[in-house]
Amino acid sequence: MADKNPTDNNEVTPKGLSIDELRYRRAYALARYEMARMSIEEQFYAVRNGVGSSFTGRGIAGRLLGSLNYLDWAFLAFRVVSKIKRWRKKSKS
User: Fold this and answer.
1) Is the entire prediction scored with pTM above 0.85?
2) Rounded CA gap, 10 and 19, in Å?
3) Looking at the domain assignment, is residue 4 inside a domain?
4) Does a structural domain hold residue 13?
5) What is the domain range of residue 60?
6) What is the pLDDT of residues 3-58, one digit of tens each?
7) Does a structural domain hold residue 83?
8) DSSP, residue by residue, 46-89
Protein backbone atom coordinates (compact mmCIF):
# COMPACT_ATOMS: atom_id res chain seq x y z
CA MET A 1 0.00 0.00 0.00
CA ALA A 2 1.42 3.34 -1.07
CA ASP A 3 1.72 6.20 1.37
CA LYS A 4 -0.32 9.21 0.14
CA ASN A 5 0.81 12.76 0.66
CA PRO A 6 -2.13 14.77 2.11
CA THR A 7 -1.06 17.86 0.14
CA ASP A 8 -1.12 16.02 -3.17
CA ASN A 9 -3.56 17.90 -5.44
CA ASN A 10 -4.56 14.74 -7.28
CA GLU A 11 -5.88 13.10 -4.13
CA VAL A 12 -9.65 12.60 -4.13
CA THR A 13 -11.82 12.94 -1.03
CA PRO A 14 -14.54 10.37 -0.22
CA LYS A 15 -17.22 12.53 -1.93
CA GLY A 16 -15.24 12.63 -5.14
CA LEU A 17 -13.94 16.19 -4.85
CA SER A 18 -10.28 17.03 -5.17
CA ILE A 19 -8.46 19.24 -2.69
CA ASP A 20 -8.45 22.09 -5.22
CA GLU A 21 -12.22 21.85 -5.66
CA LEU A 22 -12.71 21.86 -1.89
CA ARG A 23 -10.49 24.95 -1.57
CA TYR A 24 -12.44 26.68 -4.36
CA ARG A 25 -15.78 25.89 -2.71
CA ARG A 26 -14.51 27.12 0.64
CA ALA A 27 -13.26 30.39 -0.85
CA TYR A 28 -16.55 30.82 -2.73
CA ALA A 29 -18.58 30.23 0.44
CA LEU A 30 -16.43 32.72 2.39
CA ALA A 31 -16.87 35.34 -0.34
CA ARG A 32 -20.66 34.86 -0.29
CA TYR A 33 -20.64 35.15 3.50
CA GLU A 34 -18.64 38.38 3.34
CA MET A 35 -20.98 39.87 0.73
CA ALA A 36 -24.03 38.99 2.83
CA ARG A 37 -22.43 40.51 5.91
CA MET A 38 -21.66 43.74 4.04
CA SER A 39 -25.23 43.88 2.74
CA ILE A 40 -26.63 43.50 6.25
CA GLU A 41 -24.30 46.24 7.53
CA GLU A 42 -25.45 48.59 4.75
CA GLN A 43 -29.09 47.91 5.60
CA PHE A 44 -28.37 48.52 9.29
CA TYR A 45 -26.73 51.88 8.59
CA ALA A 46 -29.56 52.86 6.22
CA VAL A 47 -32.09 52.16 8.96
CA ARG A 48 -29.97 53.87 11.56
CA ASN A 49 -29.48 57.00 9.42
CA GLY A 50 -32.98 57.02 7.94
CA VAL A 51 -34.90 59.72 6.14
CA GLY A 52 -36.47 61.26 9.20
CA SER A 53 -33.28 61.57 11.22
CA SER A 54 -33.07 65.35 10.77
CA PHE A 55 -36.39 66.14 12.50
CA THR A 56 -36.78 63.44 15.11
CA GLY A 57 -36.35 63.49 18.85
CA ARG A 58 -34.43 61.16 21.09
CA GLY A 59 -37.43 59.28 22.46
CA ILE A 60 -38.97 56.06 21.23
CA ALA A 61 -41.19 57.86 18.71
CA GLY A 62 -38.17 59.74 17.40
CA ARG A 63 -36.20 56.56 16.92
CA LEU A 64 -39.10 54.92 15.11
CA LEU A 65 -39.56 57.90 12.79
CA GLY A 66 -35.83 58.12 12.21
CA SER A 67 -35.64 54.56 10.99
CA LEU A 68 -38.22 54.99 8.21
CA ASN A 69 -37.04 54.99 4.60
CA TYR A 70 -38.70 56.66 1.58
CA LEU A 71 -41.01 53.74 0.89
CA ASP A 72 -42.20 53.69 4.49
CA TRP A 73 -42.90 57.43 4.39
CA ALA A 74 -44.86 57.06 1.13
CA PHE A 75 -46.94 54.23 2.57
CA LEU A 76 -47.57 56.16 5.78
CA ALA A 77 -48.65 59.25 3.83
CA PHE A 78 -51.01 57.17 1.69
CA ARG A 79 -52.62 55.64 4.77
CA VAL A 80 -53.06 59.01 6.47
CA VAL A 81 -54.57 60.63 3.37
CA SER A 82 -56.96 57.73 2.82
CA LYS A 83 -58.09 57.87 6.48
CA ILE A 84 -58.69 61.64 6.23
CA LYS A 85 -60.69 61.18 3.01
CA ARG A 86 -62.85 58.51 4.66
CA TRP A 87 -63.39 60.68 7.73
CA ARG A 88 -64.40 63.69 5.62
CA LYS A 89 -66.73 61.52 3.56
CA LYS A 90 -68.48 60.27 6.71
CA SER A 91 -68.74 63.74 8.24
CA LYS A 92 -70.45 65.15 5.09
CA SER A 93 -73.14 62.45 5.15
Assistant:
1) no
2) 8
3) no
4) no
5) 19-92
6) 455 555 555 556 788 889 999 999 999 999 999 999 888 888 777 776 544 554 56
7) yes
8) HHHT-GGGGG--SSHHHHHHHT--HHHHHHHHHHHHHHHHHHHH
